[in-house]
């Protein structure tokens, strides 16, 4: 069996582990480190439930190999709201009914945090009219930029409203 | 998943030598396609050589006015790059039309070019597939083939190439820079993707590493990328069109560069349509005639006859839009 030894900073805490090279970042977090905030929906990159911030950028933990991210800093939705103090996005999801069962929610929140950061840096999206113009996060932009996060409960109107509130 | 060793070399030469030394070793980019296919059992390399630590993550101007995009630049970063947005908007648009924000943050330029087909039979190891299991047959031919090819396919395989980016690069005449065990070479993108042999997606030999994509100086004419898909976002193309249209002051087409996605095993350069357009008036009638010239060779499958009129009207609409922009 091929193994690797890695160190991760997860939600501010330094963790080291020895793992089979086949372990995804998602399984490393959930099954090896007991960090269950990121969820396993499809395990194939299609739903976004496993979204975490990797060195500040939103990625899919189910398609990342843990051994490839030695030294990385991971932030999960739980880490965004430390000590029970809700992150503005988490609070907005509550205020706008941005979830029903809540399974997709940690991924939605990490994705929204990453997305707002990208938009703040001026990154365009598929629906941006002028590629060189300023980024204006209207509902269409929010929907397009969040399209990598599916919600089987269909809480989309609340999710968009929550993100709109925090972005504006 | 098969057990595998993992290595993260610091320079391209070491990466090439390591992959070349083992027949079933593979380069690892963002992993968004490779890791998925390893989970599905479609492929099982015994050694992954991670290229994301290589110094191939820069976007820099080329002498002569072009632009070089390093192979490990993330798709999101290429799309957001100011030079790409300003000078190659068609490429930025194609990148932004692909996958999701998360996938684009992970996916590399090299990996995007070499991603495998999304044919569902290719991804299901219990079914016949000549691409995955040479000689086993093609389950798609008489199966669910709504997403499959209408141009350039054979009875052996009717898969389509899934990349949006590669369609824009084809219309831009990009050149792929490669480093292999025997040295470096430059491959025009038209020669990267090979014929209809299902066992061979590209002209690359084992151990050849994509180091960069070179974009020639862009034409001074408007361009566009348009993607038609089953949902508004986060879906592969049914049909896509990348086009550059150069019309003179008298309303005559000087030049056109067109590539289709979603129609063939490779990004499909529409040379027949381009030839039909050169010298023709920039009118809707010419655009439809040009589309017909390309699509005359279409051989739709039972599930995807709709792609012929869809490709025809998408191309005509894109060209009309470009002509209107040029007339302003
Ligand atoms: C849910 C989902 C939806 C998607 N939707 C779209 C879409 O709409 N449009 C679209 O275009 N794409 C789409 N994609 C595909 C995505 O764009 C590709 O998976 C991605 O671009 C691959 O890049 P990577 O760096 O992750 O490659 P990897 O998965 O790391 O590698 C892919 C292949 O390239 C090889 N490779 C990687 N880098 C190099 C190199 N430098 N030199 C030589 N070989 C190399 C690997 O060995 C492997 O064979 C989607 C993916 C997912 C998961
Ligand atoms: S279309 Fe190609 S990839 Fe799909 S099952 Fe047939 S041979 Fe395999
Ligand atoms: S679990 Fe990772 S995208 Fe669905
Ligand atoms: S809240 Fe149930 S899946 Fe989104």
From TrEMBL, chain A:
<feature type="domain" description="2Fe-2S ferredoxin-type">
    <location>
        <begin position="4"/>
        <end position="80"/>
    </location>
</feature>
<keyword id="KW-0001">2Fe-2S</keyword>
<protein>
    <submittedName>
        <fullName>2Fe-2S iron-sulfur cluster binding domain-containing protein</fullName>
    </submittedName>
</protein>
<dbReference type="Pfam" id="PF00111">
    <property type="entry name" value="Fer2"/>
</dbReference>
<dbReference type="Pfam" id="PF01799">
    <property type="entry name" value="Fer2_2"/>
</dbReference>
<dbReference type="InterPro" id="IPR036884">
    <property type="entry name" value="2Fe-2S-bd_dom_sf"/>
</dbReference>
<dbReference type="GO" id="GO:0046872">
    <property type="term" value="F:metal ion binding"/>
</dbReference>
<dbReference type="GO" id="GO:0016903">
    <property type="term" value="F:oxidoreductase activity, acting on the aldehyde or oxo group of donors"/>
</dbReference>
<dbReference type="InterPro" id="IPR002888">
    <property type="entry name" value="2Fe-2S-bd"/>
</dbReference>
<keyword id="KW-0411">Iron-sulfur</keyword>
<dbReference type="GO" id="GO:0051537">
    <property type="term" value="F:2 iron, 2 sulfur cluster binding"/>
</dbReference>
<keyword id="KW-0560">Oxidoreductase</keyword>
<keyword id="KW-0408">Iron</keyword>
<keyword id="KW-0479">Metal-binding</keyword>
<dbReference type="InterPro" id="IPR006058">
    <property type="entry name" value="2Fe2S_fd_BS"/>
</dbReference>
<dbReference type="InterPro" id="IPR036010">
    <property type="entry name" value="2Fe-2S_ferredoxin-like_sf"/>
</dbReference>
<comment type="pathway">
    <text>Alkaloid degradation; nicotine degradation.</text>
</comment>
<dbReference type="InterPro" id="IPR012675">
    <property type="entry name" value="Beta-grasp_dom_sf"/>
</dbReference>
<dbReference type="GO" id="GO:0042597">
    <property type="term" value="C:periplasmic space"/>
</dbReference>
<dbReference type="InterPro" id="IPR052914">
    <property type="entry name" value="Aldehyde_Oxdr_Iron-Sulfur"/>
</dbReference>
<dbReference type="InterPro" id="IPR001041">
    <property type="entry name" value="2Fe-2S_ferredoxin-type"/>
</dbReference>
Automatic annotation (TrEMBL), chain B:
<dbReference type="Pfam" id="PF00941">
    <property type="entry name" value="FAD_binding_5"/>
</dbReference>
<keyword id="KW-0560">Oxidoreductase</keyword>
<dbReference type="InterPro" id="IPR002346">
    <property type="entry name" value="Mopterin_DH_FAD-bd"/>
</dbReference>
<dbReference type="GO" id="GO:0071949">
    <property type="term" value="F:FAD binding"/>
</dbReference>
<dbReference type="GO" id="GO:0016491">
    <property type="term" value="F:oxidoreductase activity"/>
</dbReference>
<dbReference type="InterPro" id="IPR016166">
    <property type="entry name" value="FAD-bd_PCMH"/>
</dbReference>
<dbReference type="InterPro" id="IPR036318">
    <property type="entry name" value="FAD-bd_PCMH-like_sf"/>
</dbReference>
<dbReference type="InterPro" id="IPR016169">
    <property type="entry name" value="FAD-bd_PCMH_sub2"/>
</dbReference>
<dbReference type="InterPro" id="IPR005107">
    <property type="entry name" value="CO_DH_flav_C"/>
</dbReference>
<dbReference type="InterPro" id="IPR036683">
    <property type="entry name" value="CO_DH_flav_C_dom_sf"/>
</dbReference>
<protein>
    <submittedName>
        <fullName>Xanthine dehydrogenase family protein subunit M</fullName>
    </submittedName>
</protein>
<dbReference type="InterPro" id="IPR051312">
    <property type="entry name" value="Diverse_Substr_Oxidored"/>
</dbReference>
<dbReference type="InterPro" id="IPR016167">
    <property type="entry name" value="FAD-bd_PCMH_sub1"/>
</dbReference>
<feature type="domain" description="FAD-binding PCMH-type">
    <location>
        <begin position="1"/>
        <end position="220"/>
    </location>
</feature>
<dbReference type="Pfam" id="PF03450">
    <property type="entry name" value="CO_deh_flav_C"/>
</dbReference>
């Amino acid at each position: 069996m091929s193994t690797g030894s890695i160190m991760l900073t997860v939600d501010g805490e330094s963790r080291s582990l020895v793992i089979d090279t086949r372990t995804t970042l998602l399984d490393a977090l959930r099954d090896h480190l007991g960090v269950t905030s990121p969820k396993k929906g499809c395990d194939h990159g299609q739903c976004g439930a496993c979204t975490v911030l990797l060195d500040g950028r939103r990625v899919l933990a189910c398609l990342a190999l843990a051994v490839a991210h030695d030294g990385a800093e991971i932030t999960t939705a739980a880490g965004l709201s430390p000590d029970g103090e809700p992150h503005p996005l988490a609070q907005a999801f509550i205020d706008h009914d941005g979830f029903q069962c809540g399974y997709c929610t940690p991924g939605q929140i990490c994705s929204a945090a990453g997305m707002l950061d990208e938009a703040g840096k001026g990154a365009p999206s598929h629906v941006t009219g002028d590629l060189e113009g300023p980024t204006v996060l209207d509902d269409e932009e929010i929907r397009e930029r969040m399209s990598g996060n599916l919600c089987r409960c269909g809480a989309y109107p609340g999710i968009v409203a929550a993100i709109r509130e925090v972005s504006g | 998943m098969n057990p595998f060793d993992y290595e993260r070399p610091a320079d391209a030469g070491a990466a090439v030598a390591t992959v070349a030394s083992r027949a079933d070793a593979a380069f690892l980019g963002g992993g968004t396609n490779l890791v998925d296919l390893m989970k599905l059992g479609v492929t099982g390399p015994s050694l992954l050589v991670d290229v994301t630590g290589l110094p191939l993550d820069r976007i820099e101007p080329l002498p002569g006015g072009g632009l070089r995009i390093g192979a490990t630049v993330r798709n999101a970063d290429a799309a957001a790059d100011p030079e790409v947005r300003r000078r190659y908007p068609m490429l930025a648009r194609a990148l932004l039309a692909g996958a999701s924000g998360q996938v684009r943050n992970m996916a590399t330029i090299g990996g995007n070019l070499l991603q495998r087909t999304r044919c569902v039979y290719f991804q299901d190891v219990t079914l016949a597939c000549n691409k995955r299991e040479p000689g086993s047959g093609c389950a798609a031919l008489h199966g669910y083939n709504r997403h499959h090819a209408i141009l350039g396919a054979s009875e052996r395989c009717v898969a389509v190439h899934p990349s949006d980016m590669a369609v824009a690069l084809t219309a831009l005449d990009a050149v792929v820079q490669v480093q292999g065990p025997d040295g470096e070479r430059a491959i025009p993108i038209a020669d990267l993707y090979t014929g209809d042999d299902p066992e061979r997606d590209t002209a690359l030999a084992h151990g050849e590493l994509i180091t960069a994509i070179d974009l020639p100086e862009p034409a001074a004419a408007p361009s566009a990328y348009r993607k038609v898909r089953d949902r508004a976002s986060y879906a592969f193309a049914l049909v896509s069109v990348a086009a550059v249209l150069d019309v003179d002051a008298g309303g005559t087409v000087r030049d056109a560069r067109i590539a289709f996605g979603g129609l063939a095993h490779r990004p499909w350069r529409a040379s027949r349509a381009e030839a039909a357009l050169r010298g023709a008036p920039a009118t809707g009638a010419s655009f439809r005639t040009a589309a017909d010239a390309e699509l005359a060779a279409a051989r739709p499958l039972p599930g995807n006859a709709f792609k012929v009129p869809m490709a025809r009207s998408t191309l005509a609409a894109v060209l009309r839009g470009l002509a209107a922009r040029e007339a302003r």
